Each structure stands twice: as C-alpha cells, then as structure tokens.
Amino acid sequence: YINATATAQTIQGVQATATINDATATASTLSNLLTDATGKTPTLDDSLTDNSGTARWDEGSTINTTVASTGCTFKDSVYHVSEAQQGFLQPCIAENTDFSNFIYQVQVTLDHGDQAQVGILFQIDSTNKAYYFFYIGSDGSYALDLYTSSGQVSNLVQGISPAITTGLGQSNQLSVMAKNGVYTLFANGQYLTAVTNTSLSVGKIGLAVVNQNTPVDAEFSDAQVWKF
C-alpha cells in the first residue's frame, strides 16, 4: 500500500512537471512566433501621431463639467482615448479597416483613471457595437470580453500577469494573434493566454477605455497589423 501510494504520487509529480514544461514550451513557441511575424513588413503601420493614414480613426470629444473629456482625439502627436462617465466604455474605431486572420499590436499608456481598463478592439462589426475587447489594468490584470450588438457582454478569459508593467504612466505593448477563431493574447511580447471563440470572424480594429471609478485618459501609439 505504501509503495503503491508512493508510486502514484511520483507519477502525479511527473505528470504535473510535464504539464508545466508543455505550457512553458507552448508559451515560448508562441512568443517566438509573434516575434517572427512582427519582424516582417506590416499591412497597417500607423504611428497614431495624426489621422493622415488610411485607417481613418474616429475623432471628436465632449468636455464634461468635471473638467474631464470623453472621446477620441489626436493631441501632442499621440492618440488619446478618454471617458468621463463611470461605468462607460469609450470606443475609438479605425473605420477604414477590415481584417480576419491577423496580428494586431499597439502601444498603450494609461495616464489617468483609477481601476480603469484600457486596450484594443478587434473584429468590430458593421454596426460598431459587436467586437472583442482585450484590455489590461494598472494592477497587472488582463481580460478578453465579447460585446454583442444587443448590448450583452461576456468575459471569455481573465487573469493577472507579471508581463504587464503596473502603475499609471507606464507603457505596455498589447498584441493579439487572431487565426480561425483562436485568439492568442500577449503583453510586451510575452504570451498570456489563448481563447477559442467563433462569434465574430472579421471586422474593423479599434481602441477603447472603460471608466470603472474615475475619469480615464489613455495614450495610444504605433498601431500595426500583420495579415496571415
């Protein structure tokens, strides 16, 4: 009985180690794949210093009485996305884009907003109401949500990663690899997780912030897309 128990525990230990090793190998392989793919010439390469590119980003904002703004504006050679109302998401969409299988990457800096969520939108449909939202928080958290045209929101995955640089004023590079309904998420070139969902398959790209507590303002730059 003792020997059998010891053997079972040993097998479990080996299996657990193998699982960890497999996960590490997968993460390393996917990170290398991202590096190789983004080393090529992108289909879309927009510094987001202004709106002179072909993507045609949304522009316009309103000033709130709390001296906070809501909207999408190019200011000081950077694209700002802001939301003054608590509990609201502000999308800013590249209206002249349409992608299916791709890698979408952008640099984001959260300037203001306690507990805010900042990130990228993709597979945005023609109504601009259905899309995937991959976002991070200043605490190192990340998530992928699905928004439907009927107004429903579903969380597909969430977690916390040391790959995300925490705190306000810190810059993070977000990347999503989309291929045949599998969405692989990266932060600063490091693999976070992968999700399979076939609700949306093609659409525009965009950026977004969510005001969870206080008015939020984020800077976005260097938006790039590589097509498979």
Notable characteristics:
alpha+beta; nine-stranded antiparallel sheet; six-stranded antiparallel sheet; 1 helix; 50% strand; disordered N terminus
Question: In words, what does this structure look like?
Answer:
Helices cover 16% and strands 50% of the residues. It is globular. Mean pLDDT is 89; it is low at 1-11. A hairpin with a 5-residue loop joins strand 9 and strand 10. Strands 1, 2, 3, 4, 6, 11, 12, 13 and 15 form a 9-stranded antiparallel sheet that branches. The chain is built from 1 helix and 15 strands; from the N terminus they run H-E-E-E-E-E-E-E-E-E-E-E-E-E-E-E. By secondary structure, it is of the alpha+beta class. The relative contact order is 0.23.
- The proportion of residues in beta strands is over 45%
Sheet of most strands: 9 strands, antiparallel
Mean pLDDT across residues: 89
- In total, how many beta strands? 15
CA-based gyration radius: 19 Å
Morphology call: globular
Structural class comes to: alpha+beta
Oligomer: single chain
Distance between the termini: 55 Å
Give start-end ranges of low-pLDDT stretches.
1-11
Summarize the helix and strand pattern as letters.
HEEEEEEEEEEEEEEE
